[in-house]
Write a structure and sequence with these properties.
Layout (H helix, E strand, L loop, with lengths): L23 H8 L2 E7 L8 E6 L4 E7 L5 E8 L5 E8 L2 E12 L3 E5 L5 E6 L13
Antiparallel strand pairs: 1-2, 1-8, 2-3, 3-4, 4-5, 5-6, 6-7, 7-8
Length: about 140
């Protein structure tokens, strides 16, 4: 369940007029939006099959496939506050709430640490290009 505590981020941010500097917190909130795949879990393993999707508006989805092939999907909310990522996710009948610390956030890499000091690393999944519609001539 520790692995599930790793992925919750993003804050819906309105557009800023061109030329105005974007505050770091707002830029980080926008940067976290997307789908992230765990590349290194808290035990140092690289074989964890877990993805976190952060959506505009503060919604998130965690998808995990366990070693026995069983898959789980958890839906919740998140926000970015400075370098913190507070989130809540529903796990069956209970709600897990936790605040993660963002140690690194780039266009392609996310490193977070949970309240127990366990570090997890993620890489951004690239979007598949939309198939082009055949144009009639």
């Amino acid at each position: 369940m520790r692995v599930l505590a790793t992925g919750l981020f993003v804050l819906c941010v309105p557009c800023v007029s061109a030329g105005a500097p974007v505050p770091k917190e707002r830029a980080d909130a926008e940067k976290i939006v997307g789908t992230w795949k765990m590349t290194l879990d808290s035990r140092g393993g690289a074989d964890t099959n877990l993805e976190i999707e952060f959506q505009q508006g503060g919604k998130m989805t965690i998808r995990q496939v366990l070693s026995n092939g069983q898959s789980s999907v958890y839906v919740g909310t998140y926000r970015v506050v400075g370098n913190e990522l507070p989130y809540e996710v529903k796990q069956g009948t209970r709600v897990k709430a936790e605040t993660l610390t963002i140690k690194k956030l780039t266009a392609d890499e996310l490193v977070i640490v949970d309240p127990d000091g366990l570090k997890e690393e993620f890489s951004r999944l690239k979007k598949m290009p939309e198939p082009k519609k055949d144009e009639k001539k």
